Amino acid sequence: MRNTTNSKFFKLLVTGLLLTGGIVLLSADSSVVKKWPGRLRGLCVGKPRMAMTQEKTFKRMADWKVNVITVNFDIDKRLKDLPPVSGLPKVEPEMAPYRGAIDRLNKIVALSRKYGIYINLCIQSAVGDDSRNVATAKANKDQKERAEKIYLANALTLLKHIAERYKDEPVIIAYNFIPEPHTPWIVANWQTKIVPEAIKTVRQVDNNTYLIFSPGLWGFPCFDKIKKPFKDPAGKLLYGYHPYAPHNYTHQGIKKRANGMVYPGMLKMFDGSKLKLWNKQALYEYMKPAFDFQKKYNVKMFAGEFSAVRWAPGREQWVKDMCALLEEYKVDWTYHSYTGWNGWNPTFPPEAKGSNEPDGGVETPQLKVLKKYWAKNKIFFKDR
Predict the structure, then answer these.
(1) pTM of the model
(2) Positive or negative CA dihedral for 264, 269, 270, 272?
(3) How far is the C-alpha of 83 from the C-alpha of 358, rounded, in Å?
(4) Which end of the chain has fewer CB atoms < 10 Å from its terminal CB, N or C?
(5) Which are the contacts of 369, defined by CB distance < 8 A and separation ≥ 6?
């Protein structure tokens, strides 16, 4: 009679030996054990759009040596190019608003596995995330607070379902929960209530996947407001931030912001800020609270977004300085963005017309800078 127990153990042992190296390991019950693979440098790709289900998109990123993408999970009603719903996986009632996004995410997962690219899955939007009600409405404090709490409850429900669904999916290395907290009640309770509740929610079903949390306001690197690290029973926690600075420069020409601001130069962080010289040293000073927190507590950092609009004068130098600082302090990162609105896309030149085309096909100076850093990537996802 065949000893199936020993045979199973031998298969697990051999598989574990083949995959040792901090990429994917197997535990005794055959579940995947995720370990942070090392330096990750890549792209934020926005929502799970149609372009992200196409092989040519992943082939190009793989040619660039990208080894991680940040995917902003979203509700279906915001996916303008969502095809007719047919043949999609069955989902729980709570997940019905995300059905098409799950279908696309599953395709993204398959392509990520094939091309060796890890996924940071960003829970950025959920049912109830209505900016008219939550962020900018002319409503009283109580009305806004109720809207924020409804949105938060839905976001936590989504987070739990995502964790249950993908806890054993090795290419999904992290969940990034509400990366840009900005509404009053959520910001006020972010450290004391919301982050601990999010950790508890995930760890009830998933001790496997890393968690990334950013401080308010808007995920800026204001780590001087966080007095000590959060407690995670699984010990798999990273701290994130989105260093858009100076904001008037990086976002110039969007909505009512003026154009023509040059980096490096005398610039304002926001309209109400004082003019100051913004250069590499100023960018360092802006991110210093994050660097100090990282060093003091020996934690890992992840810059999930950073960018300047493609028509911003001096953008190439801004990207060079930002990448150099993140590299110096060993911060993992995903540059914003690829395949979404082309105002941020490094494959489009400054003079391109606005569109949602996924790839402009141009070797811009910004893309050359990014490729220089992606070329440093040595570790890529290895499928079973």
Answers:
(1) 0.89
(2) negative
(3) 17
(4) N
(5) 316, 319, 320, 323
User: What is the sign of the dihedral through the CA atoms of 42, 43, 44 and 48?
Assistant: negative
How buried is 132 (Cβ within 10 angstroms: 0-12 exposed, 13-18 middle, 19+ buried)? Answer: exposed
Q: Determine the residue type at 81.
A: D
Please calculate the CA angle 264-266-267 and round it to the nearest 5 degrees. Answer: 95
Cα angle 263-239-185, degrees, rounded to a multiple of 5:
90
* Residues across the chain: 384
Residue type, 316: E
Query: CA–CA distance from 109 to each of 11, 43, 167 (Å)?
Result: 25, 15, 13
Please provide residue 202's backbone torsions phi and psi, each rounded to the nearest 5 degrees: -70, -45
What φ, ψ does residue 209 adopt, rounded to 5°? -95, 145
Pairing of strands 118-123, 172-177: parallel
> For residues 128 and 147, is the Cβ–Cβ distance under 8 A?
yes
pLDDT at residue 331, rounded to an integer: 98
Compute the C-alpha angle 117/119/327, nearest 5°: 75
Q: Which amino acid is at 253?
A: G
| pLDDT 10s digits, 235-287 | 999 999 999 999 999 999 998 899 999 999 999 999 999 999 999 999 999 99
Q: Could you say which residues of the chain have pLDDT below 70?
A: 1-31, 77-89, 130-143, 384
Distances (CA, A) of 78 to 74, 75, 82, 219, 274: 7, 6, 9, 22, 37
Q: How many angstroms separate the CA atoms of 151 and 158, rounded?
A: 10
Closest CA to 252 of 177, 294, 311: 311
Q: Is the Cβ–Cβ distance between 264 and 249 less than 8 Å? A: no
